TrEMBL record:
<comment type="similarity">
    <text>Belongs to the metallo-beta-lactamase superfamily.</text>
</comment>
<protein>
    <submittedName>
        <fullName>N-acyl homoserine lactonase AttM</fullName>
        <ecNumber>3.1.1.81</ecNumber>
    </submittedName>
</protein>
<dbReference type="GO" id="GO:0102007">
    <property type="term" value="F:acyl-L-homoserine-lactone lactonohydrolase activity"/>
</dbReference>
<dbReference type="InterPro" id="IPR001279">
    <property type="entry name" value="Metallo-B-lactamas"/>
</dbReference>
<keyword id="KW-0479">Metal-binding</keyword>
<keyword id="KW-0862">Zinc</keyword>
<dbReference type="GO" id="GO:0046872">
    <property type="term" value="F:metal ion binding"/>
</dbReference>
<feature type="signal peptide">
    <location>
        <begin position="1"/>
        <end position="23"/>
    </location>
</feature>
<keyword id="KW-0732">Signal</keyword>
<dbReference type="InterPro" id="IPR036866">
    <property type="entry name" value="RibonucZ/Hydroxyglut_hydro"/>
</dbReference>
<dbReference type="Pfam" id="PF00753">
    <property type="entry name" value="Lactamase_B"/>
</dbReference>
<dbReference type="InterPro" id="IPR051013">
    <property type="entry name" value="MBL_superfamily_lactonases"/>
</dbReference>
<feature type="domain" description="Metallo-beta-lactamase">
    <location>
        <begin position="63"/>
        <end position="271"/>
    </location>
</feature>
<keyword id="KW-0378">Hydrolase</keyword>
Length: 287
């Protein structure tokens, strides 16, 4: 009987991954990654995305995504896009003195509803960084736990940002939300099993972060915030002119490239149309 059991175990191990003691490995968590359309920005001049002047005078449309990660232990929204109030503006939003036109074709809340969710159902919220095309719907997620780099949070609530209600009022109510601060160079393991990690990649802002997701079938995916704004940015290591620390940004590019190699990760440059188009079309998910 013992022999028969051993043979059955060996046969099972031939069909599934087993550890050295012969017991089947636990199934990886059924994590799913959804790419949602949270607007787009059409720039009449993308010069600001390259501080070497090489992109001056060119026009380009940048996609603005939101990412939803569904894990058996909860949901995380990563970046919340442009404010969904723009969807109610008949011709979108054209800020004075800024060379861009912002459009939101479908509200984030309407997309969550397609999955039977409201913002209050989302356990965790995190932004790659504080800029308004990432924190635009931050105040929808005050019932979530906010995962944020300590330096980034300090900057978001400093006097200069409080004095700019246009952007500040998109996220200001998170000040009293339940918060998990990421200190120093630490990374944050969202669900405690290594499947979803918020990793520091500062420079664009003081606490810019990227997200590394391990999917059971598709493998590793790196969602890289504003590490690279344009299709040209990664290969040419372009640094935007609106940036906190150039040397730190270059060092973070090296760090994220190493992470991508080590994990053989699919790299998503969030504002690049072809990377967004390579994701399953919502409400389909990558898993
Ligand atoms: Zn951005």
């Amino acid at each position: 009987m013992a022999l028969r059991n051993a043979l059955l175990a060996a046969a099972a191990c031939a069909l599934a991954a087993c550890n050295q003691s012969g017991a089947p490995e636990p199934d990886p968590p059924a994590v799913q990654l959804y790419a949602m359309d949270c607007g787009h920005s059409t720039f009449s001049d993308i010069g600001m995305f390259a501080d070497d002047g090489s992109m001056n005078g060119q026009s380009r449309t940048l996609v603005v995504p939101c990412y939803l990660i569904r894990h058996p232990s909860g949901d995380l929204i990563w970046d919340t896009g442009l404010p969904e109030a723009i969807a109610d503006m008949p011709d979108g939003w054209r800020p004075d003195g800024f060379p861009a036109h912002f459009v939101v074709p479908v509200k984030l809340t309407a997309q969550l509803q397609q999955l039977g969710l409201t913002p209050a159902d989302i356990e965790f919220v995190s932004f790659s960084h504080m800029h308004s095309d990432h924190t635009g719907n931050g105040n929808l997620f005050t019932a979530s736990t906010w995962i944020v780099d300590a330096d980034e949070r300090t900057r978001m609530f400093d006097a200069e940002h409080r004095a700019d209600p246009q952007d500040f009022n998109n996220y200001n109510r998170l000040e009293t939300a339940e918060t998990q601060l990421i200190e120093g160079d630490a990374e944050h393991d969202v669900f405690g099993d290594g499947s979803v990690r918020v990793i520091q990649a500062p420079g664009h802002t003081p606490g810019h972060t990227v997200l590394l997701v391990q999917l059971p079938n598709a493998g590793a995916v790196l969602v890289t915030g504003d590490m690279w704004h344009l299709a040209e940015s990664r290969e040419r290591r372009l640094v935007p002119s609106f940036n906190t620390d150039r040397a730190q940004t270059i060092a973070s590019m090296d760090k994220v490239e190493a992470l991508a190699r080590e994990n053989e990760a699919l790299v998503i440059r969030e504002h690049v149309q072809e990377d967004f188009d390579a994701m399953p079309r919502f409400p389909e998910a990558l898993n």
